[in-house]
Design goal:
mainly beta, 116 residues, 11 strands, four-stranded antiparallel β-sheet
C-alpha cells in the first residue's frame, strides 16, 4: 500500500495489478496491469512515478503512474523485493527477502540504496 502525492492510495497484488483508490471516499479509480511476477511492494514518488517491487526481485520505475515508460532500477534474482522506501531527495531504499534461509530468524538477507 502506498500513498500518492495527490492523496490517492495504491495497492499491489499477486497477479501483477496495481489498483488506484480515491483517498477521500475509497472508490476504485483504475487498475494498471504490470508485466511482473506479482507486486510485492510499491511506493510513489513526489512526481507521480510508481516504483514496483516484485516476487522475482526486480524493482521497476514507471513514469506517470504506469502510463509512460519504465526501466529497471534494481534486480536480485534470488529474493523478493519486500520493502521500498523513497526519500524526498530521490534515494530509493530496498530490502530483499531470500526464501532459502538456514536460520529463518535472520530477517531480510540484503538491501540496497539507489540514488535516482
Amino acid at each position: 500500500l502506498a500513498l500518492g502525492p495527490d492523496g490517492n492510495l495504491f495497492s499491489g497484488s499477486g497477479d501483477g495489478a496495481v489498483r488506484v483508490w480515491c483517498g477521500i471516499d475509497g472508490s476504485h479509480i483504475r487498475t494498471m496491469q504490470f508485466d511482473t511476477d506479482g507486486v510485492y511492494s510499491l511506493t510513489v514518488g513526489l512526481n507521480g512515478s510508481l516504483f514496483v517491487g516484485d516476487f522475482a526481485g526486480t524493482v521497476q520505475v514507471w513514469r506517470a503512474m504506469g502510463s509512460g515508460s519504465r526501466h529497471i532500477v534494481a534486480r536480485n534474482g534470488s529474493a523478493s523485493a519486500v520493502t521500498l522506501c523513497l526519500s524526498v531527495t530521490g534515494t530509493l531504499y530496498t530490502g530483499w527477502d531470500q526464501e532459502d534461509y538456514e536460520d529463518e530468524d535472520e530477517g531480510p538477507a540484503m538491501g540496497g540504496v539507489y540514488i535516482l
